[in-house]
Amino acid sequence: MKIGVLGSGQLGQMMCLEAIPLGYEFYSYSPDPHSPSEKVGAKGTIAPYESKKEIKTFLEQVDILSFEFENIPKPTLEYLNEQTIVNVFPPPKALIIAQDRFLEKSHFRKLGFRTAEFFHLTKKTSHIEVAIEFPWIIKTLRFGYDGKGQVKIKNKTEYDAFLISAFPSESSEYLIEEVIPFQKEISIILTRFHNGDIVCYGAVENEHKDHILDLSIFPARIPVSLNLEAIEMASKLAESLQYVGTMGVEFFLKDNLLYLNEFAPRPHNTGHYTQDCQSFSQFYLHVQAITGKLPPTDVRPKPTLMKNILGNSYQESLKIADELLKDDRYRLHLYAKEDAKPGRKMGHMNFKGNLEEVNPLFHEL
Ligand code: ATP
Ligand code: MG
């Protein structure tokens, strides 16, 4: 069976590494000529996501289609929804919602979940008074990642200044959000199977540096009741989308209340710990789910830490990783990217254990 995936970055690479030993051939599609996925054996099509002709040719080569990247143009997702060449998991509708912050937060509200207060800012709505207390975070409506396209606005003067250059084109759109002064960020990684069963290890706790995920701690150090509530909310979200595959759901935790921030319709950076948690990885579970397998029954994840390795001081990080790898509880996952730019995710390291046991060098990576 041939699995086709739109996107060819590190998530596709790690999916491919799980798909091959399960007997699948892995095909990736993206405009990137030096893709991490191809470096581990994916057969790559290099073409734009906008080209329906190329997408159709790609679909004719594979038996099933999935995603490792959510910012696929909406017309392409609509085409994928209509075509009858292959089955697509997760449903393209999930990506259409996830890639538009207004649709996404409105969907959360419809499901009855708590979110930050928000306002859809367009040229047309820019004269309306926004009934949200300062401070705000203004996010571009689409295509944001790692905090890119976000600005903090503290008062009316800053907002007025922002509005002056906010609409370089008619189509510029934003979401204004109330800042949640959270105590913790957590996420839920879950995999939903064709029969509706869900595999989920519970919440993982996440720390960001300069808006980029830095450290994940599994299990999250939160009360059991909140953990169950987060699992329930994420499961309800997955069900509402008739989701099949792995997804990541991000929450803020403030005063023992969960605020749903966003979800990613694909395996998620905060789920990388699953590769070394001594149970099933999020990529393995994704491949099993989209290919129609039943969920595993014996699921026993152990405490695990994940630290991202960025391009900032890559050579030093590799030296530290070498040192840590003398201890067999550490695992290094590098993405074989061409150049190490600051802020670029180059790899990550997992530690099979908890914060009290980890070598302090781990935090220097
Ligand atoms: P990523 O790709 O890292 O998930 P993103 O660019 O899609 O990020 P968000 O996840 O919404 O955007 O925001 C990135 C980070 O900014 C959050 O993890 C959180 O630390 C902070 N942040 C975002 N929205 C809020 C908010 N309303 N209140 C407080 N902090 C926020
Ligand atoms: Mg996020």
From TrEMBL:
<keyword id="KW-0547">Nucleotide-binding</keyword>
<keyword id="KW-0067">ATP-binding</keyword>
<feature type="binding site">
    <location>
        <position position="208"/>
    </location>
    <ligand>
        <name>ATP</name>
    </ligand>
</feature>
<comment type="function">
    <text>Catalyzes the ATP-dependent conversion of 5-aminoimidazole ribonucleotide (AIR) and HCO(3)- to N5-carboxyaminoimidazole ribonucleotide (N5-CAIR).</text>
</comment>
<comment type="pathway">
    <text>Purine metabolism; IMP biosynthesis via de novo pathway; 5-amino-1-(5-phospho-D-ribosyl)imidazole-4-carboxylate from 5-amino-1-(5-phospho-D-ribosyl)imidazole (N5-CAIR route): step 1/2.</text>
</comment>
<feature type="binding site">
    <location>
        <position position="185"/>
    </location>
    <ligand>
        <name>ATP</name>
    </ligand>
</feature>
<protein>
    <recommendedName>
        <fullName>N5-carboxyaminoimidazole ribonucleotide synthase</fullName>
        <ecNumber>6.3.4.18</ecNumber>
    </recommendedName>
</protein>
<keyword id="KW-0436">Ligase</keyword>
<dbReference type="InterPro" id="IPR013815">
    <property type="entry name" value="ATP_grasp_subdomain_1"/>
</dbReference>
<feature type="binding site">
    <location>
        <begin position="177"/>
        <end position="180"/>
    </location>
    <ligand>
        <name>ATP</name>
    </ligand>
</feature>
<dbReference type="GO" id="GO:0046872">
    <property type="term" value="F:metal ion binding"/>
</dbReference>
<dbReference type="InterPro" id="IPR011761">
    <property type="entry name" value="ATP-grasp"/>
</dbReference>
<feature type="domain" description="ATP-grasp">
    <location>
        <begin position="105"/>
        <end position="291"/>
    </location>
</feature>
<comment type="similarity">
    <text>Belongs to the PurK/PurT family.</text>
</comment>
<feature type="binding site">
    <location>
        <position position="139"/>
    </location>
    <ligand>
        <name>ATP</name>
    </ligand>
</feature>
<comment type="function">
    <text>Catalyzes the ATP-dependent conversion of 5-aminoimidazole ribonucleotide (AIR) and HCO(3)(-) to N5-carboxyaminoimidazole ribonucleotide (N5-CAIR).</text>
</comment>
<dbReference type="Pfam" id="PF02222">
    <property type="entry name" value="ATP-grasp"/>
</dbReference>
<dbReference type="Pfam" id="PF17769">
    <property type="entry name" value="PurK_C"/>
</dbReference>
<feature type="binding site">
    <location>
        <begin position="261"/>
        <end position="262"/>
    </location>
    <ligand>
        <name>ATP</name>
    </ligand>
</feature>
<dbReference type="GO" id="GO:0005524">
    <property type="term" value="F:ATP binding"/>
</dbReference>
<feature type="binding site">
    <location>
        <position position="101"/>
    </location>
    <ligand>
        <name>ATP</name>
    </ligand>
</feature>
<dbReference type="Pfam" id="PF22660">
    <property type="entry name" value="RS_preATP-grasp-like"/>
</dbReference>
<dbReference type="GO" id="GO:0034028">
    <property type="term" value="F:5-(carboxyamino)imidazole ribonucleotide synthase activity"/>
</dbReference>
<dbReference type="InterPro" id="IPR029752">
    <property type="entry name" value="D-isomer_DH_CS1"/>
</dbReference>
<dbReference type="GO" id="GO:0005829">
    <property type="term" value="C:cytosol"/>
</dbReference>
<dbReference type="InterPro" id="IPR011054">
    <property type="entry name" value="Rudment_hybrid_motif"/>
</dbReference>
<dbReference type="GO" id="GO:0004638">
    <property type="term" value="F:phosphoribosylaminoimidazole carboxylase activity"/>
</dbReference>
<dbReference type="InterPro" id="IPR054350">
    <property type="entry name" value="PurT/PurK_preATP-grasp"/>
</dbReference>
<dbReference type="InterPro" id="IPR005875">
    <property type="entry name" value="PurK"/>
</dbReference>
<feature type="binding site">
    <location>
        <begin position="144"/>
        <end position="150"/>
    </location>
    <ligand>
        <name>ATP</name>
    </ligand>
</feature>
<comment type="subunit">
    <text>Homodimer.</text>
</comment>
<dbReference type="InterPro" id="IPR003135">
    <property type="entry name" value="ATP-grasp_carboxylate-amine"/>
</dbReference>
<dbReference type="InterPro" id="IPR040686">
    <property type="entry name" value="PurK_C"/>
</dbReference>
<keyword id="KW-0658">Purine biosynthesis</keyword>
<dbReference type="InterPro" id="IPR016185">
    <property type="entry name" value="PreATP-grasp_dom_sf"/>
</dbReference>
<dbReference type="GO" id="GO:0006189">
    <property type="term" value="P:'de novo' IMP biosynthetic process"/>
</dbReference>
